[in-house]
Amino acid sequence: MAKNLSSSQTTLPYAVDKFHEVSLRLSYRIGRAAEAHTIGEKLVKPCLIEAARNLFNQRQVDNFQIIPLSDNTVNRRIRDISSWLEEKVCSEIKLSPSWALQLDESTDVSGSAILLVLVRYVSESRVHEELLICKPLLSNATGEAIFELVEHFASTYPCERGFSVYIATKNKYRNRLDAEPDMRLQLSGNTPNFAEILSGCQIHPSH
């Protein structure tokens, strides 16, 4: 079986990493659009294959079928991109001459207390606003509990836009969503470096 797999891989016109890069880019767009992660396998990939069947030969159609876009894969890709964006923001904050936080606490559809923190900082002579924290408050929403999550920062402004994104994402698509990775993609003004993210990813089979 390993021999057959190796043989089939050598016939591919693109490097395997290219398929994972396409998967990464499509997952990014799914996250930015706040769509359910299942849309990759249920709609995006079938549309790509259908278009390919009408435009290209069968060998090229087969290439589209290889693109990994399962629910688990899209979720993993979004988390990879979110982690990269978080590291980029933290590195830029360290270089900023000044920064401020937008902090607020609210409850989600399940009644859980959620802390949302956006950060404003200066990078390359421009003011940036990025998601810093979106975490459940496991204890009562006391000042001490909030301080434990943002002890390295100070708090100032309200976060209406961030909460509207959180509520829309939580309500519309997944009742048990860890919303932070999706929200970071939706709210970020940074463009991911896909090649850098892909170089740090451990390649998994789509499942």
Automatic annotation (TrEMBL):
Name the domain of life: Eukaryota
Write down what this protein is called. Answer: Zinc finger BED domain-containing protein 5-like
Q: Which organism is it from?
A: Galendromus occidentalis
Q: Which gene encodes it?
A: LOC100901199
